[in-house]
Please model this.
Amino acid sequence: MFLVWLMAVPLLGAIAALAAPDRAAKGIAAITSVLTLLGYAGLLFISRASINWAWIPEWGIRFHLVADGLSLFLLGLSSVLLVVAVFASHKDAGRTYYFWLLLLGFSTAGLFAAVDLFVFYVFWEVLLIPVFFLLTGWSGERGKKAAMKWLIMNLVGSFFMLVGVVALAVIHSQNGGGLTFEISQLSHMSMSSPVASWLFFAFLVAFAIKAPLWPLHGWMPETYRESEPPVTAIISGVLSKAGIYGILRVMIPIFMPQFREYQMWLLIVATIGLLYGAFMALRQTDMKMVTAYGSLSHMAMMALGIFSLTQAGILGTTFYMVAHGLLVGGLFLVLGLLERRTGTRAMADMAGLNRSAPRLAAYFLFFVLGTLGLPGLPGFAGEYMIIQGLFVSHVVFAVIAGFVLIVAAWYMLRVFQAVMQGPARTSGIKDLFSGQVAWLVPLAGLVILLGVWPAGITSHAVPSLYHAMNLALGKGGVR
Amino acid sequence: MQGLVEILVLPLLGAATITAFKGLMPKKLPGIWASLLVAVSFLLSILADRRVATLSGSHHVITGVLWNWVTGFGAAIHFRLYLDPLSAVWLLIITGVGALIHIYSIGYMHDDAGQPRFFAYLNFFIFSMLLLVLAGNLIVLLIGWALVGLASYLLIGFWYERPTAVAAAKKAFVMNTLGDVGILLGLALLYIHYHGVGYPHLFQAFSQAKPGSAFFEWSAFLLYVGAMAKSAQFPLHMWLADAMEGPTPVSALIHAATMVTAGVYLMTRLYPLLRLAPITHELIGAIGAFTAIFAASVAFFQQDIKKVLAYSTLSQLGYMFLGIGVSAYTASVFHFMTHAFFKACLFLAAGSVIHGLSGEQDLGQMGGLARKMPWTMASFLAATLAISGIPPFSGYFSKEAILGQAYNSGHYFLWGIGVFTAGMTAFYMFRLFFLTFLGKPRNQKLHDHAHEAPLVMTIPVVILGVLAVVGGAFGGWLNGWLKPAFALYPGAAHAALESGPLFGTIVTVALAVVAFIVAFLLYVRRDTAPKAGTEQAPGHWMLHAWGMDLVWMAIVVNPLKLVGQAMGAVERTILAGVTGLAAGVQSWATDLAPIQTGYVRRYALSIMVGGVALLAYYLIRIGFIS
Model:
């Protein structure tokens, strides 16, 4: 029932926020998000919560949601970031803003829990809408442009996926298995190799656009730049994971032979993206853009973990998704707090802010260190497992990934030092209010917990992953 | 875990409480509280070491698992702690010398507004360094390894409004990340091969292996890269000289006595692996010897009191790695120990000088301070004699042990470099001593205001000075103490202290004495200016560290910038493509939907149409619709 809670509460809260007056909206959203998180906490005590209702029986579509080891922690990530994003939002952002934000929480929860491919697709489409409106409504004319690019590229991706979804179900039924969209059923069927290859790339394009993975990241710079910081945090922290999660949840069980066949190309393209994001991050002059391109590089790191087709790599990606979501989400929110105080994002216009805002600087540094993969914080654990996996599969990619960690240290510290250190040139800014510390402290605590105890996630994720990988084993398997 | 956790947690507690409550603490409390916690940690370390010593059998190891760090892709990696005689030595030095430097800092930092932050960082450093040496596997070691790097970063950039300090901090962090990645790759390699990264597990496996395979060479080399970065071995040495931007107690604690010796710790810890990787093992010794002589040459003409000491640290680290390269493990640890005494003493005494001269670090402004600061001068002199290898001061014994073993094992060339470097060391150290404390004051105004440091600073300096004098006496004890650690696995047959040939000792000491006389004649008799000798060829290059910064820029940084520029061009193309796509869809949608119903619906519609066409194409393609 906690799964129902996880979806129903944000949905009802969204409606309530819309109905309420503007000044009450944030309060309603805050209560809703905290209630959602409490529901999620309940989920942690249940071994494998699920919902399985018939939806459209004649097409074999079932409203089937599961909180297994794969989805459980992403559900947690989206619940946590929803709370944080609500708390970090403007008090006077208006009721529609909170309506869309909560709706976004609803759709990500549905997406991560769905194990029926059709339901997965529906949520995949649904979440485009709140993001679109969050982009258009609060960021002016440039935000509208960004929203357009976001929508167009993602719709293109969605249609590739729709083709894939329909085709898989139809092939399954033609094989005599009956019409179903259940991923675990679809993964057992046989397909002719050319068809499977076409479908493989259809799904891959859809997921790669969402993540985004190079070279399909064209929507990313403007969207990240123009969105409100809490929205950026959710897009980069949660929605980007939807792309990677899709690869894990949908593609690994179904398309293992294709992964094997194209592995080298996948690894090469992802590695290009890894280097590309890092070097682009090094060139940016806008602090938000450094983080955006750094995130592009990290998404490529997650893709590499999967493409290594090893237990360590795939487990590493599963863990790194959560770690990166918390870290990059936190970082974008801190950048938002900073931008609100300085009115600029250009690194050249800021310096030495540490003196006037030491607490803000400390949290900034914390998330910077996490993002650059400092051992002891969770980003490192994920990267370690991924690199371990790459080592098993192809050493050269492990070495390149290691090199990128050095570049990451470089570009992340570059932002921190440019903004916070050096001789102060401008007048000081206000330090964090205690209300802001109130949500930063638990977030930082959670990050530290995951950093020293990654097994808290990995030990839970393993059975589900092995389940997915065992399905895959018959078709080439992972090492 | 028999007290290990307490040793670790106390300094962390200090860092946390000072950070959280610094607003409420009276001005002097952070320093006292931080020093107290480290001192208690020191006492607990002594107790823990006694427990290690009294353990029965040959093992002498306390170990235990705190929790599982990660599970799921093979053998679980634990969060494991481990104390054996080797880590015990580091434990004592870190907490002991650390406590002295904490106390000294109470005086040194007393009028700095960032004092609480300073002590929080310092305590955090002690915690990280203890984690590094108490780690029971390579992952926990790497976590400690990176956290000391972070502490070093924070403390180098402590005065964050100085651009030079900020740049130095970043350089140190990035270069050390290179080392971290080396360790990461090395341990990944070992994990894949042996399904575990715990020390006993790995070393047991190494015991049965035959030396010489590429696998062992690579894993040893990758781990050595980590040691190189942290211990500033050539060519990853540049960050250490720049790190002198930090407050002087930091230079003493982190960039001389403890953190930079982490590489020595790691390599001695991994002696069973070095046995299996003869090429890397030789390389360690060769690079160590080169670093020793290279850094000594750079130290020759430095104008900044801390820069001389920084390069001398580099040079002494070179000696320790030379010792590792010739399997003189106990001698390396011994030299680490005496070096911690005399170098911490030198840095703290230099700090007192800088403090007494209101922040002046330029040797050109010093001179004649002996009478003004007698205690500092005496300690500095003792430590200078120690580092120069004059018997019976501590450095003589440990350096002799390393050189003797280099000779005994047939590394005559490395031995020769080591002996020659010993002479160079005596020269530049006495140059430093004479320029600072003897001769005429070169800046009368500063000299008039110079004063001896307060007791809270002088007492730690004197204690370290005494240790620098008598530290050599610990050699015999250390030899016996470390015996069980090096007896556990094969590969340390020559680990114990050995004495070299008599003529070697005579040559080394004679060179040092000659160097002393030359320095005396030049800088006391003739009162040569500190700048002399740096105008033309060798002196100029020596002063500028042989241009290594430029070399790095040319072969690493600039090519990377070019790659970045090329990628920037690609990015413009991609973004232009997407903008074109958006504009295309927009105009297409306008054609298709003459009724103006709001653009969202228009785009949705246009994409729907496109999508259906695409769907149809696909279905035809895969043979649904024939």
